[in-house]
């Protein structure tokens, strides 16, 4: 049972860390794309009535295309929403990890049947969290 608990502990730590890494990455993307969208749309809006010709007109055209594309990326990507889902999943995995730490510290005082029962409940909670969590890319996982 010690080997099982050690394996579960490692897997829960990796899941928690992986989701936090994804969350941070997605929040950064949300910030970058949001700031770039604000910047580009402000330039396009402020230069709307400007009588431009030549290179300036071409630059404004490309900035307006960039602004429209960023608007679609921000809307479709939903980076902040996805980041929050990963943060919530990481928090849930952290809760399970702390429950397992608590069980490991009390294992000498528990009967085998009690320990098996508590591990079963923890496994069921883990399955529920895994089922409702977003996928974590391999790039976010901790390498052992």
Automatic annotation (TrEMBL):
Residues 4-140 form the SMODS and SLOG-associating 2TM effector domain. Keywords: Membrane, Transmembrane, Transmembrane helix. The chain crosses the membrane at residues 32-52, 58-77. InterPro entries: SLATT_4. It comes from the Bacteria. Pfam families: SLATT_4 (PF18186). This is SMODS and SLOG-associating 2TM effector domain-containing protein. It comes from Serratia marcescens.
């Amino acid at each position: 049972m010690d080997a099982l608990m050690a394996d579960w502990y490692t897997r829960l730590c990796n899941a928690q860390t992986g989701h936090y890494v994804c969350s941070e990455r997605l929040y950064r993307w949300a910030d970058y794309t949001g700031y770039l969208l604000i910047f580009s749309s402000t330039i396009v809006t402020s230069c709307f009535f400007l009588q431009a010709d030549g290179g300036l007109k071409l630059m404004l055209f490309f900035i307006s295309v960039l602004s429209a594309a960023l608007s679609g990326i921000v809307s479709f990507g939903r980076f902040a929403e996805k980041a929050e889902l990963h943060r919530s999943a990481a928090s849930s995995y952290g809760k399970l990890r702390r429950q397992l730490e608590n069980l490991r510290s009390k294992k000498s005082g528990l009967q085998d049947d009690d320990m098996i029962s508590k591990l079963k409940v923890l496994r069921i909670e883990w399955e529920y969290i895994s089922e409702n969590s977003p996928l974590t890319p391999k790039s976010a996982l901790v390498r052992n």
